Amino acid sequence: MVDTTLVALEAGRAIGTCTIGEFEGDAVIWKIYVVPSAHGQGIGAALMRAALDHIGRREVRLEFVKGNDHASNFYERFGFRFDFEEEPGDGTTTVWMKRPVK
């Protein structure tokens, strides 16, 4: 799978993005970002649904910085579950989650 970035637009202005790729043979959603002024409008959920549709029936992984409870709760609503943690050496801990094939 080639990395793909989905973009949410409002009046021709980018208000959200989601990048999909592959890591160690698994599909990965690298980042979902929505500008603060567009929070609470369902943009992140729409990007997630579009990403999962694009990926299709495959196991999917994603990662975020430990302590970002908002991200963790958001991803859990879409069926992602804790997989493992790693320390990249920059003083943070990365949490990896996985969503099984649906």
What's the alpha carbon Rg, rounded to whole Å? 14 Å
CATH architecture: 3-Layer(aba) Sandwich
The fraction of residues in strands falls at 35-45%
Residues in helix, %: 10-25%
Descriptive notes:
- This protein is of the alpha+beta class.
- It has one domain: Aminopeptidase (3-Layer(aba) Sandwich), CATH 3.40.630.30.
- The chain contains two helices and six strands; from the N terminus they run βββαβαββ.
- A six-stranded mixed β-sheet has the order 1-2-3-4-6-5, with helices on one face.
- A hairpin with a 2-residue loop joins strand 1 and strand 2.
- The radius of gyration is 14 Å and the shape is globular.
- The chain starts with a strand and ends with a strand.
- The model has no long low-confidence stretch (mean pLDDT 94).
Features:
102 residues; alpha+beta; Aminopeptidase; six-stranded mixed beta sheet; 2 helices; 6 strands; 22% helix; globular
Chain-wise SSE layout:
Blueprint: E1 4-10, E2 13-23, E3 26-34, H1 43-55, E4 60-65, H2 69-77, E5 81-86, E6 94-99
Parallel strand pairs: 3-4
Antiparallel strand pairs: 1-2, 2-3, 4-6, 5-6
Short characterization:
With 102 residues, the chain is an alpha+beta fold.
